[in-house]
Structures are given as C-alpha cells and as structure tokens.
Amino acid sequence: MDTNFKHKLLGHMAGNFTCREIAQLVTDYLEGSLTFSERVRFQLHLGLCFACRNYLRQMKFTITTLRQLPVEPVPPHVKEELLQRFRAWKRQSPEPAENPEAD
Amino acid sequence: MHDTLHLDEPGLVRALQSGDEKVFTAVMDWYSGSLLRLAMSSVPSRAVAEEVVQETWMGVLEGIHRFEGRSSFKTWLFRILTNRAKTRGIRESRYEAFGLSASSTGADEGSSLEDSLFVAEGSGKGHWVDPPQAWEPDTPERVLLSKECRSVIENAIERLPGTQRQVMTLRDIEGVSSEEVCNILEISETNQRVLLHRARTKVRRELALYIQENKT
Ligand SMILES: [Zn+2]
Question: Distance between CA atoms of A28 and A48, rounded to whole angstroms?
Fold first, then answer.
C-alpha cells in the first residue's frame, strides 16, 4: 500500500486518530494512561503509518538517552565541607541513653 | 549502593541515625549527583544548586531521627531538596514562583506544542510537515551516542520551563516513578503527565534537528 492510500484509509475509518493526535497522545500511550479503546486506535494508526511509528521510536530513543546521561559531577570541596558538617553534627547530636557520659 | 554497604534501607537509616561516617560518605557519594541535577533544575545557578545540595544533607541529618520509612529514602531526600530549593527560590529574588505558574509549567503553551510538526491548511492538513525518519540503524552510532548528542539534550533540558525540567529530571533521568514524582513535587498525576509530555516533545525535537544535520 502506498502512503497516500494508507492515509486516506485512516481518514475514512471513523474514530481514528490523526498523526497530530498521535503526537499529542504519545506520552499517554507510553505511560499507559490511554483507555482500552484509545490504545487500540493508537496501535491501529501505528500499524498503518510509518511516520508515526518512527515518531514513537524516536521518542523512545530520546527517553533511553536521557536515562543514560552522565551523573552530574559534585565538586570535591562540596563533599569535603559536608563531611566537616557531618562531624560537627555528630559531636552535637544527643547520644543514646546507654552512654555512661550522659549523666 | 545499599548492596555495596551490605545494608537494606532500614539498616542504612539506622546507620545514619547512629552517625556512621562511612555510611554517610557512601550515601552522600551515591546521591549527591542526582540531588545536584534536581537542584539545578530548581534554582537559577549552579553555585546556588550546590548550596542547596549541602542544605539538603543538613536537612537529612536534622530529620533522620524522625524518618519513618513511609516513603523511600530517595523520595524523602528529593522532597527535602525541593523544599530547600523553594525557600532558596524566595531568597533569590530572580527566581519567580516555584509553584505551578504558567511560565514555570509552560501552561500557556496549550496545544501549540505540536503546531510546527503538522501541516495547518490545505489538502495535506494534519499530515506531518516532515515525516519522522528512522534514527536507527541509519544514523551512525558516533552521532547518536556522541558527547555532542548528549550536550544537545542537556541544552534542550536547560531551556525547559522550571517544572517541566524538574519532572523530566526525576522521571527520565533519575528513573523515579510517576507516583513518587507527584509526591515529591506535589502535583497531580495528570499535571505530571502533561509536563512530561511537553518536556519530551521539545527534547525530541531538538535531538531530531541535530540528527538531521549530522546524518551523513
Ligand atoms: Zn501517523
């Protein structure tokens, strides 16, 4: 089937999503928040539309890449300062009751 | 990380409560990068973000005796951070309303988000202006997984309105569940999804432009 024909077919099937609607619903689809019937219509469109299939794949690729971004480096001085503050906190914080020095 | 310390979460919390320095150092090493990323999406500068991270850890120490494990330790950490960032936001006058103002959520964008992708008028109305192509396997890996590709993404994230950036940071970068994100940012499930959608749509678009330019 050529692309134009597919689009005409999609257009003629009542209640079908347009490519624009697919782009608008893609997150709801991935999040699993579409109703059953919306999900079926979404997948039906994907089955016939190469462009939207690619769009969904691009979106998934984007999400995967986001997940792999390198950790934000924390400067050593920040950690060093925190350790100092931790030690100060430990000196101040009340010791548990079993500590003989408590009374 | 809990594994490398041979501690489950209650064990970790008890170790922190008792002032175990080794555990504190390990926990701090493990989570500070994530905290810094979230802080950077919440306050105007990296310097302020670093301070917010420090304040967050102080908040952890102050509150650890009251931690009851009703949320996960990580969620609790992120909540302390967003609260500290809010206080900070008020202190730094540059930083306008942290909450769900139109400019911070991008609520004023409406449905215009997808406008540029589709034909507005005529016989092709509603069709893709430029039908999306397959990125894989046509695009060489050196482009898709390059440092440059990552910085395209980082730059796109930086340009997002505040709350969109926070949601994307938590969901997509840190892998926090949607339920926990709602909890941390105190937003509704629907709101969270809308913000995530806007953020993803924009970041994908930037990535598409970059890949288009570098495909050959
Ligand atoms: Zn389509």
Answer: 20
**Residue B190 domain boundaries:** 113-213
How many C-beta neighbours within 10 Å does residue B109 have?
Answer: 16
CATH label of the domain that carries residue B151: 1.10.10.10
Residue B98 covered by a domain? no
Contact present, A48 and A13 (Cβ < 8 Å): no
* Domains in chain A: boundaries: 3-94
Residue B119 included in any domain: yes
This prediction's pTM = 0.85
Cα separation of B192 and B89, whole Å?
21
Q: What is the CATH number of the domain that holds B42?
A: 1.10.1740.10
Chain B residues near residue A59 by CB distance under 8 angstroms: 200, 204
Domain presence at residue B97:
no
Cα A28 to ligand 1 centre (Å): 16
Q: Taking CA B153 as the corner, what is the angle to CA B183 and CA B51, rounded to the nearest 5 degrees?
A: 55
Distance CA B170, CA B114 (A): 24
pLDDT tens digit sequence for A7-53: 666 555 556 899 999 999 999 999 999 999 999 999 999 999 999 99
Instruction: Give how far B205 is from chain A: nearest CA, Å.
Output: 9
Distance CA B74, CA B176 (A): 9
